[in-house]
Amino acid sequence: MTIKNQFVAPSVGDSVTFRKTMTVAEQAMFTGISGNLGGLYVDRGKAKAAGLADISVFELAAASLLTTCLSRLAGSGHRIASYGLDFEKAITVGTTVEAVATLVSNEGGSFAFKLALNADGAALASGEARLVPAGES
Questions:
Q1: Beta strands of 1-137 (E only): which ranges?
Q2: CA pair distance 39, 55, nearest whole angstrom
């Protein structure tokens, strides 16, 4: 017997939640990837002088957690066409971030999602994303 993994399109209202604690090691890797040496992200002294408890997590590193939710909902045949977030506050290293993506529409294979990042019940960021079939330009 052969079992095939078949993608089942999500329904409006479906959501996926993914939680991850943002670590110093990941911060260092993202620094290497991005080349961003901004003081809030790499210098504890500068981050604390700015009023943070520790160095700030790269916003795009935190936002990338949402891509896990999106791919789990939309499947491997889709790519991000648009993605936008508004950040409420800085996220510090050591924070456990909860990423949530909820499908709000499915039109012709194009998916629209509501996005949220939270920690300890507080909103960190919110926004929207649209995914389209991978071959679509």
A1: 15-21, 78-87, 96-107, 110-119, 122-133
A2: 8
Q: What is the pTM of this model?
A: 0.89
Dihedral (C-alpha) 31, 36, 38, 39: value to the nearest 10 degrees? 20
User: pLDDT tens for residues 42-91?
Assistant: 999 999 999 999 999 999 999 999 999 999 999 889 999 999 999 999 99
Q: Within a 10 A sphere around the Cβ of 54, how many other Cβ atoms?
A: 15
| Cα-based angle 32, 69, 127 (whole degrees, multiple of 5) | 85
What domains appear along the chain, each with residue ranges and CATH number? 15-133 (3.10.129.10)
Q: 45, 59, 126: which is closest to 92 by C-alpha? A: 59
Q: How is 19-49 classified by DSSP, letter by letter?
A: EEE--HHHHHHHHHHH----HHHH-HHHHHH
